[in-house]
Amino acid sequence: MLTDNHGRKINYVRLAVTDRCNLRCFYCMPEHGLDWLSRNELMSYEEMMRICSILVKMGVEKIRITGGEPFVRKDIMQFLTALSKLNGLQHLTLTTNGVLTAPHVPELKKIGVQSVNLSMDTLDRNKFFTITKRDELPAVLDTLEQLIRHNIDVKINAVVMDGKNIDDIIPLVELTKNLPVSVRFIEEMPFNGEGNHYSHLHWHYMRILRKIEEQFPAIQKLQDAPNSTSYNYHIPGHLGNVGIIAAYSRTFCGTCNRIRLTPQGMLKTCLYDDGVLNVRDLMRSNLQDDAVANALTDALHHRAKDGFEAERLRKEKMPAHESMATIGG
């Protein structure tokens, strides 16, 4: 069992396979994109398989593939297929913006992907273009339809942005009436590739909940699963559920069971730290698996208590141009 210095069991890894994305969501990166990593800077699929194998042997049970956008990386389905066969891995999931995903849904089902997080901040095509700088909402909705058709659990992730998509909260909630999906609203975070564009958070999780309660006063609190990052709710008569993720308020740190690996192999034991161990470089220095595992264990034994401590302990202040695409979504 892999545990940190606070006694928290670590059994969940979020692996970013690329920093590149085919959308330009303003809260994630500048419209012109980022200075993309070179191929040699990225972990190879072989390196990713190796580190995943080591982590699963250490007790990791769930791996979520993220980006950037995973499906912009060439041969991603071959990698996912190989990863799905990893002995001891119980849950393989992914997060996608849905633009390129629909054609792959039958194969995702075949290899055992049980759930997908679909990023979708609005159901309005014009607003979608304003937020992402791309006219791709029809492709995203096609992916949603395919996922539901193939009985893959869907969590729709919507970042709540003051002045951008507040009017979209209720239409997104209404999706849960007839669709078996969980719509989750996420507090906006400061990782937008352009520097913080607000001095404080206007739409925190309690304000989001009050907005939903105004329209659906009968909404009921559900019991949250262990290690849940979201506060979860159900509206009587609806097929799906609603969740709210306090990503900026950081209220779920005490039960955090997850770590991140960035596209260049940097281990992040917290979303808000600046990376604590370069796993890619360890593997490229020809260390044996046991030595890599020991380095991972040592890093976790110096883990920050929560996101606020992690931010304070950064070697450098949070850079103005840090992006979720380079962190690993």
From TrEMBL:
One of its GO terms (molecular function) is GTP binding. Its cofactor is [4Fe-4S] cluster. InterPro entries: Aldolase_TIM, Elp3/MiaA/NifB-like_rSAM, MoaA, MoaA-like, MoaA_NifB_PqqE_Fe-S-bd_CS, MoaA_twitch, MoCo_biosynth_MoaA/MoaC, rSAM. Keywords: 4Fe-4S, GTP-binding, Iron, Iron-sulfur, Lyase, Metal-binding, Molybdenum cofactor biosynthesis, Nucleotide-binding, S-adenosyl-L-methionine. It catalyses: GTP + AH2 + S-adenosyl-L-methionine = (8S)-3',8-cyclo-7,8-dihydroguanosine 5'-triphosphate + 5'-deoxyadenosine + L-methionine + A + H(+). GO terms for biological process: Mo-molybdopterin cofactor biosynthetic process. CDD domains: Radical_SAM, Twitch_MoaA. It comes from the Bacteria. SUPFAM superfamilies: Radical SAM enzymes (SSF102114). Its EC number is 4.1.99.22. Gene3D superfamilies: Aldolase class I. The keyword Transcription regulation does not apply. Residues 5-226 form the Radical SAM core domain. This is GTP 3',8-cyclase. The gene is moaA.
